[in-house]
Fold Metallo-hydrolase/oxidoreductase superfamily protein isoform 1.
Amino acid sequence: MTGFVREFYSRIRRKFHITITSLFLLSMASFVVLLGTFTFKLLVSEGSSPCFPRLNRFPTSMSYPYSYILSNFGLPSSLPHPPFNSSLELKTLIRAPDHNSTLHSVTDDQEVKRRAIVVCPNVIVSSGNTTPKVAFMFLSRGSLPLAPLWEKFFMGHEGLYSIYIHTSPKFVDEPPVTSVFYKRKIPSKPVQWGNATMVDAERRLLANALLDCANERFVLLSETCIPVFNFTTVYNYLINAKQSFIGSFDDPRPTGRGRYNKQMLPKVSLADWRKGSQWFEVNRKLALNIISDEMYYPLFRNYCNPPCYVDEHYVSTLVNKISPELNTNRSITWVDWTNGGPHPTQYERKDVSMALLEGIRQVSNCTYNGHTCSICFLFARKFHPNTLESLLTMVPVLFGFNESNTM
């Protein structure tokens, strides 16, 4: 009888052990499958490239990783972009550690510039205590017709970006309070195409963006620009870049060297003269250099007049003179000049396709941080307002998430 009980107990123990082992192995297999699915989704939704490391600088506060996770899974964030508060004076900006939620009413460019220079005197790169941000600066006549596309681009990434809009002073309309563009307009002045007021507006945008000490990268865009990669790819590319992205080259043609004026001598020589795209991206050091320059800009304002266009020569030439090592000599905003003329090709609804966008995303190889990279352009222009509907249908491919989850 004792032997029977022992045998019976032994069999039960073996079966129990086999059952526990099987459940453990099944659980591990399920975990591996879930982990693989998550990893695959993360790679698809956020993008990766051998050109630059994936996002390696996460926000420090608890709310930011939450919004970052929401964006990874295509879920809407309930955290609205903080609006400016026009009741605060400029002196408040100097004391505030985060200026993204404040705006001033000062229209004196020299005063705003002075404040921008002194507000963060020692900030060039993040100290590690502040989450670095990218300042998106829109130079527009009025509204942003492609704003719904940009809304999806920014969604879920609060705390990693700032927005600044320069419009005509006569434009007073505001988007809905839930929009990331709500109350993002800076005090502006009239801008006329082809003259120095265009660069005045660029410097005005930079000065306002520099008031936020967390802003480390500054990209200039127009109302016809679109992003061609998702936010994380763009943020990763810019925050980890060792140089800035300013088109700057020596153009021997009449539209290049032919625009040089000898009255700029001796401070600016023909050998210094450069041409490039107006749509630049700069780090904090170059942004400060651009707004604080009082030696070269007066020469461009006085002696670069049509057919010389200040916005095509000033920043390119300035950086070539003062800090050429900080520039890649290329723009990250794709523009089609193949048709010639004073303006680039404008794309309309019938022109927009994934083939066009993929061609921009993989247009050629370029250099990034000393290595050959297949991602050269992060933005593109000029896209007509009637392209919005078509572009929105391409959001899942462009930004890597399910459109149904973003509504």
